[in-house]
């Protein structure tokens, strides 16, 4: 059976999830795709850090060890920041590797040049995991755009902020208490700034913009407001009026092709597609010219939901280019 050589860049929550899912589903993937995927190497930042065992896999802190693997064909990237992730993926693409990323910060800025680079080298980029965790919005959008035109996108793109707003409403607790609980449960980082400020949702919105409209608005023109100024009194008042606070990322294209985007709290009623989305769930509502409004809902965070959609990206790429991967 033909074997696929793959590498994982970064071995935190996402990287460990990828390793787990691939090993658990390896036999199923063999049957469905007729190919065997082998994790040949993992790039880490600190070799001395205690981590799960990975028998037979090269663990290295030097990217040169990764890029020089003979026959390397797929790179899974789960690094946090723009660099060195962007440089690593450029080199992997130039070598002829398909790449699959979960790096929303990097991909929001470089999605268009990276995809142009990949197209010129005859390889693919999978990026489902950059936007809404386990919600298959990228695959859905790609399919819709073959016939439909997307006119508007609204989404709850950050599970942490949604969880906080949900807890404030259900348990009538203060923002600080809901945040602390989210941190204790692992939904929020020790530094939750990107989540509660709206920056995380903004990055994801820009990725969706590039796909849906082929461009992004000027980043400086996008108004971003967080949820940290919403008080318990605000939430109680909204509840009495039958409304709920949602932290909504939104982008609209007008008739002249201009894009208008924003991220911030909105009060929504029971007729709104995002009204019922509670907890750490994400949701994306797409307004299209033929289908109308379509809303996708699912878990927005966590190791395994993110890893699973990355492995699904791998399976999709294999399905498209199986002949490219076969090696003896």
From TrEMBL:
Pathway: Amino-acid biosynthesis; L-threonine biosynthesis; L-threonine from L-aspartate: step 3/5; Amino-acid biosynthesis; L-methionine biosynthesis via de novo pathway; L-homoserine from L-aspartate: step 3/3. NADP(+) binds at residues 10-15. The keyword Oxidoreductase applies. The active site is at 204 (proton donor). It catalyses: L-homoserine + NADP(+) = L-aspartate 4-semialdehyde + NADPH + H(+). Its EC number is 1.1.1.3. It comes from the Bacteria. Signal peptide: none annotated. GO terms for molecular function: homoserine dehydrogenase activity; NADP binding. InterPro entries: Asp/hSer_DH_NAD-bd, HDH_cat, HDH_CS, HDH_short, NAD(P)-bd_dom_sf. Residues 10-126 form the Aspartate/homoserine dehydrogenase NAD-binding domain. GO terms for biological process: methionine biosynthetic process; threonine biosynthetic process. Belongs to the homoserine dehydrogenase family. This is Homoserine dehydrogenase. It comes from Psychrobacillus insolitus. The lineage of its organism: Bacteria, Bacillati, Bacillota, Bacilli, Bacillales.
């Amino acid at each position: 059976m033909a074997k696929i050589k793959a590498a994982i860049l970064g071995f935190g929550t996402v990287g460990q999830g990828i390793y787990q899912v691939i090993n658990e589903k390896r036999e199923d993937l063999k049957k469905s795709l007729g190919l065997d995927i082998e994790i040949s190497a993992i790039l880490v930042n600190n070799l001395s850090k205690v981590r799960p065992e990975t028998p037979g896999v090269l663990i290295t802190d030097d990217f040169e060890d990764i890029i020089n693997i003979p026959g390397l064909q797929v790179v899974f990237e789960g690094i946090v920041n723009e660099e060195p992730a962007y440089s690593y993926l450029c080199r992997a693409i130039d070598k002829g590797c398909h790449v699959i990323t979960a790096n929303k910060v990097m991909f929001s800025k470089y999605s268009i040049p990276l995809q142009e680079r990949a197209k010129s080298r005859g390889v693919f980029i999978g990026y489902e995991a950059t936007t809404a965790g386990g919600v298959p919005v990228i695959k859905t959008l790609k399919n819709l755009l073959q016939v439909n035109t997307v006119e508007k996108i609204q989404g709850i793109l950050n599970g942490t902020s949604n969880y906080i707003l949900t807890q404030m409403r259900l348990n009538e607790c203060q923002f600080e208490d809901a945040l602390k609980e989210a941190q204790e449960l692992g939904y929020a980082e020790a530094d939750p700034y990107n989540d509660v400020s709206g920056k995380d949702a903004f990055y994801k919105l820009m990725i969706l913009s590039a796909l849906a409209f082929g461009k992004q608005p000027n980043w400086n023109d996008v108004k971003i407001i967080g949820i940290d100024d919403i008080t318990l009194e605000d939430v109680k008042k909204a509840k009495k009026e039958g409304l709920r606070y949602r932290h909504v990322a939104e982008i609209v294209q007008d008739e002249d092709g201009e894009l208008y985007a924003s991220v911030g709290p909105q009060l929504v009623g029971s007729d709104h597609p995002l009204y019922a989305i509670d907890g750490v769930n994400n949701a994306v509502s797409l307004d299209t010219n033929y289908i109308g409004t379509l809303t996708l809902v699912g878990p927005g965070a966590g190791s395994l939901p993110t890893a699973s959609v990355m492995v699904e990206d791998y399976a999709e790429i294999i399905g498209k280019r199986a002949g490219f991967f076969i090696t003896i």
